[in-house]
Structures are given as C-alpha cells and as structure tokens.
Amino acid sequence: MDLANLVPIPVLLPLLAAGVALALARHPAWQRIVSGTTLAVVAAVALLLCLAADARGPIVLWVGAWPEGLGIALVADRLSSLLVLVSSIVTAIVVIFPSRRDIADSADGAPVSVFHPTFLVLTAGVANAFLAGDLFNLFVGFEMLLFSSYVLIMLGATKERVRAGSTYVVVSVVSSTLFLLALALVYGSTGTVNMAQLPERFAALDPGLQLTIQLLLLIVFGIKAAVFPLQAWLPDSYPTAPASVTAVFAGLLTKVGVYAIIRLQTLLFPESPLTELLLVVAILTLILGILGALAQGEIKRLLSFTLVSHIGYMLLGVALGTELGLAGAIFYIVHHILVQTALFIVVGLIERVGGSTSLARLGGLASVPLLAALYLLPALNLGGIPPFSGFLGKVALLDAALAVPSPLALAAVIAGVVTSLLTLIAVIRVWQRAFWQDRGEDDDRVHSLRVLPRIWVVAASTLVAITVALTALAGPLSDYAQRASVDIMGGAYLNAVEEAMP
Length: 502
Description:
The protein is mostly helical. 72% of the residues lie in helices and 2% in strands. It has helices at residues 9-23, 28-56, 78-94, 115-131, 135-153, 159-190, 198-203, 207-225, 233-237, 243-268, 275-294, 299-319, 323-354, 369-383, 389-402, 407-436, 454-472, 474-490, 492-500; strands at 59-63, 72-76.
C-alpha cells in the first residue's frame, strides 16, 4: 500500500466520525465510544506516518491530482506527523472527561448532543493545519478548528462562557480576516499559495513587499499562538470553558499557531530580517506572561498565563534561526502539549473534589494523596525541575541561544532562566495553598476521589504518566527533533513536495 494514501486519514476519519456521532445524538455513551475509537485509530495512523517519515523522508499526497498550481498538497514530514500523533493521543484521552454538568444545554443538565461531533471536527481541523502543504489549506484547517472552538467554548451558555466566548470569537474573526487579506496578497503577487513554490517566487518580489507579507502573516499566527502583545484574549477566554475543553485548547490550539510560525520562518522566509524582532517578542512573552501568572488567585487563570509565557520558549527556538534552536522548539512543543493538557485536566479534578479553583477557597486537598501526586508531577515538570522533560527542553533551548553570538540571545537566556524560576514559584504556590492550606472547621467541601467516575481518575493518571515517561523518552525524542529540524532547514520538505508534484 502506498503510504501517501494514509496522509488524509487524520483529517477524513474524524469528519466521518463526526457525522456518525451526530446521528447518535440521543446516545451520549455511544458518542463517546465513537470519538474515543476514532481518535485511537488516528493515533495509530499518525504513529505509522511518523515512523515512515523518519525512515524515508516527507510523505506527500496531492489531493485530486489537479494540474500544477491548483492541487492541494498534504505533507507528513517528521514535524507534522509527530504533532498529529501527540495531538491525537491527547484528544483521545481528554474526550473521556465531558460530563452532564460541564456540557449542559438546559437546566436539568441534559448533555449537549453536539459536543462529540464538534470535538471531532476540531481534531480534524488541527490535523489538517499540521498536514497542510499550502497556505489556503492551512487557513481551512484554522477555520475548522476555530468554528468548532466557538461552539465548545460556549457550551452550557452560562453568562461567563458567553462573555468569554464573545471575546474569543471577535479576536478569531479579526485574525481570520487578516489571514484572508494575506492570502490575497500572496496569491496576487506570486500566483500560488503552495508553500514549496513560494520561497522561489518570494525571492523575486520587492523586499518591501516581502516584509509586508511576512509581518502580516506573523501577526495572524501571533494572534493564534497568543504571543505578546497579541495574547490578551487568552486568559479571559480559556478558564471559563469546561475543563476538558480548556485542556485541549491550552494543549493544542496555541501550538497550531506556533507550528504555522515555524513553517513561515523556515520555509517561506529562511533569510528573515525579523530575527531580532522575534527574539524581542519571545523575551517579552516569557517575562510578561509569567508575571501575569504570579498575580492570579485562580488556578485556571494562573495556568493560562503560564501557557502564554511558555509560548515564549517555543518562539525563542524559532527566532534563533538555527537547527539547534528549532530542534529545541520542537521538543518543547511536544513537552508542553502533554504537560499543559495534564495540568488543566487535573485542575478539573481539583474543582470537582474541592468545589472551586480559587486559591482563596481551596485547602486541605493533601488529604487526597493521588490527586496531590497528579498535580505535583506535571507542575514540577512545567517548572523545569530536573530530570523532567521541562528541564531538558529548556536546557536545549538555552544552549542553542548561548551558541548565537548576540546580546539579544543572551538576554533571552536570562529571561528563560528567570521565567523558569518564577513558573516554579507560581505552581508551588498553588500546591501550598490548595493542598496544605487549612480550611475552616465547618467547611466540608473536600471530597475523596470517590466522587469522580473511575475512568476519569484512570485517564488523568494515564496522561500524567505519559508526561513522566517523556523524561525517559527524552533522548530518542531529542534525536528525532534534531532530524526534523535538519529536514526543515535542509530543504527536504521542499524537495519532497516538488518531486511529488503532478
């Protein structure tokens, strides 16, 4: 079998399953089975693509076999297949968690029948964005996941969710409009939107026009990745959504924006004059994001600000413009998807057991040892404590920055170290107050894990175990990230698409 025929499966299979799940609207248990099975199959396909791309190079499928300039290319190289694999693992685990109270469209808590179909469309959009070989298909992937996220973020239609969702929708519509304008400018000036054809055609354009296109696309992708100063929408939007939705949003959606920035900087503008600007943005994202986290008294908002801050580490790796920097960014993306998702899922359990996510109202959760462990392990990982993958990823990025003889790169190293220390302070403050703070004698809101479905505890434990296992797999993952970086910066992606062109 031609492995290229497997490339569209991570997009097509969830879309087909979404239709099946919608037909099972009156059977939520069956919807969950369909969703979980579909995402498990997608993970298996992604693993096969990942191994194949590592063994033989990028795998390209031209959809429809249309003439040159009109076809849509899907490309599974080391980077895209790895991210599809990680995203499908995360979504397959998280889809277990939605409950009647989380996703209700009526006062009696009836489950929302559109959750699973919408969730599957979201996963298809994420996969399409990762596999897209042209800017227009990347736009389609963004719109699929954004349209789905509009629905998911407002589930239950509470006042807080509608308000936060409205902000999210407005920001997303603005970014999508700017993306369309950028696409029109790109196609009007080059006659193509294929990412393998654009570098050569961009080189023939006026430098001022090149810079305009690059800045416009960076703004679009910067909004989606929530980098400074385009991040203000995120801390107000994510914390109000159901825990399962927030976990996927935090783990995946911003990483799609970071992925787009990687493709932009390495494929379309490899000789970018904006390196120093990107380094400045990375430094400001690191520092201002973590300062915002330290000012929070609610766990979801605190983690949302740490999410913004740690996007700065990924942007740093891209901005360095070196293979080492890009490899460090790829490693850190995988680490952060898993750890951030795990933390938000555990916070959802904390809310159920403790009755709140406000640090002022929590305390005494150390009486639930398993919950304490489920929080502490990914929290220390996020804070960069050795030997966890967070420490290894940060060391790789800082080593790459030290190899660049630039005052800004040195400033980024200092910002990265400071951010890591402040992140540790932020997550330990949650640990101290939520788990060890005394509660009032009459306050009996702390429950045992018996109030939770057993499958939730097993799923959360599995996800946290994966984040711990990532430390043991750090060596192979780091080597893989290095090979992916060489592929991207060495032209393997461009050559594979051109060779497969009909």
